Amino acid sequence: MGHRRNPQRDHKQRRGLGLLPDLPTAPPLPRRPSPSILLSSLCLANLLQYETLRLFPPILALPKHTSSSPQALKIGDRTIIIPAHTSTSPSLLAVHTHPKYWPDPMEWKPSRWMTKENGRDSLVTPARDTYFPWSDGPQNCPGRKFSEVEFVAVLALLMRDHVLRIVKGDGENDDKARERALRVINDCDMQLLLRMRDADQLKLKCERRLE
Ligand code: HEM
Questions:
Q1: C or N: which end of the chain has fewer Cβ atoms within 10 Å?
Q2: Residues flanking ligand 1, CB < 6 Å
Q3: Beta-strand pair 3-4/204-210
């Protein structure tokens, strides 16, 4: 059964489930939002994607191989020579969770991506070489822009008219359901890509909001 839209209740429930723990929750979008309201809501969707890809990059490391000649790798003011026919596998996750660049590195905290520029909300640009879920350099992901636009478009359209709720188990309250959801989300391993090991343990229902 659906529910009437009630911004205050939605806000409380989203906080109650801890899905957006540290974000100012935007009011639901009006049917025909002005371009500036639309832009700031889309920006919110963007930072959810960035923070999720920081902690859960689908490709955890970037295997690279040198050819028949050695390669020089410059790191700060050091130059390291990687011998010919050598494999390296720089870990994205290690850089994405390095405490030198990311305070509270293991916390999923979308607000870390938000800053103010000339009084307006805008996205943080991370320090160079500290964030690269789409890889970097000449062989980086050609689908980056596509996946960014797709994520924002799907999320914005879905959440405009719907709310997602965790399907609770028998006798389970909100807190227990949230704990279970976080356990399932954090229990990942690497198959072809990063994946939840037992996603079937977590069911969500998508309810239509009524005007
Ligand atoms: C969140 C979504 C995505 C992430 C995080 C991602 C990440 C990556 C990464 C890390 C690589 C490896 C680059 C390297 O070897 O250095 C890659 C390669 C690639 N990605 Fe994506 N990708 C995403 C979505 C997409 C989409 C939507 C497409 C196509 C529409 C795409 C097409 C490709 C292709 C063709 C390559 C191989 C590039 C090459 O080896 O020259 N990706 N991606």
A1: N
A2: 53, 58-59, 62, 133-135, 139-143, 146-147
A3: parallel
State pLDDT tens for residues 158-209.
888 888 899 999 999 999 999 999 999 999 999 889 999 999 999 999 999 8
**How many Å lie between the centroid of ligand 1 and the Cα of residue 59?**
9
Measured from the CA of 146, which atom of ligand 1 is nearest? 27
For tokens 């607000």, name the residue: 111
Distance 94 CA to ligand 1 centre (A): 19
CATH of residue 186's domain is: 1.10.630.10
Structure token pair of residue 171 = 């006798």
- pTM of the predicted model as reported, rounded to 2 decimal places: 0.82
Domains identified in the chain, total number:
1
User: What rounded mean pLDDT belongs to the chain?
Assistant: 84
CA distance 153 to 192: 26
